[in-house]
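Note to self: keep these together.
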Amino acid sequence: MIVMGCNSGGVKGEGTGGGDGRGGSLSDVLLEVGRSAENAFYAFLELVSDVLGFSVTTTTKKEDVGNHFKSLGVKLGKASEELEEVAKKAADSSKSQEVRGAVDLAKATLNTLKTNINLLETVGDDNVVGYANNVAGSGAAVADNELKKALRALQEIVKAATDAGVQTLKEGTITLQANGGADNKDGAKILATSGGNNPGANDAGKAAAILATVSGEELLASIVTSKESDAALTANASGDTTAVAFSKGGQADHLAGANTPKAAAVAGGIALRSLVNTGKLASGAADNATGGGKEVQGVGATAVNKLLVAVEDIIKKTVKNVLEKAKEKIDESRKPKTAE
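Structure:
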């Protein structure tokens, strides 16, 4: 497991405790007139800096990712406590009700994020991320209850973001034959759960090529636009096949039956299969051979890392927007009245 500092997120000034060299807790920055909303966001980033930038390797277990989400939930709880401290410190002011209103609105969003991040803590198991068959053979679908839990949690996180004014996620449009290039539809065979036609030795490479055409944002969008009721494939995949349907699997020939499905949907399916309890990817060869379990697992880990980056990014954007709104209202309430 690799845990990096918040500068891996690429936000200039992170880790400076307020972005202007003056430091201070989140509550202090929010209360101080003259400190900007950006300063408040930097203070939040400092608060969560030791849990940002998490990524998985081939030795990371699914439950390790769950522990990361648990730690992130704890940090969001601490941010809520800092906001509550703002309301307490302003309790004796004439504008205490305005401050309380701003704090409660911000806390409500943070609590929604925390609740659903905590749900993601429980969806994995003790197998490695991207767990794959160690011989040529099919994989196994994810546990339905945990899949539903993960889907609902991600949908609620994204909804909280859009409710807070974050731009709607960009959906991927590239198909399994990107821009008329190589046809990578057979990469979807690593999601096979039944039938005798296992992935070929070259199909893990095609799955990796599919992932290379998809951003983390597009991958997350493909998941949250899925439905719980989307079923495993019993016929050829199409442009309407969702990430959840791909995660549930089916016969290899159906999964790779067309090049018209969205690459993001396949990528989302790989991420869910690689992260959620009982999920197992199909392999095209013995464990250490080309197209075997180790190579397939690496594809799964890549998909999960894209998902983790996207989730972290949308949480940061959500908190930034929420703190901007709270800071504006808190500053308005604390400005001295001008003489008539």
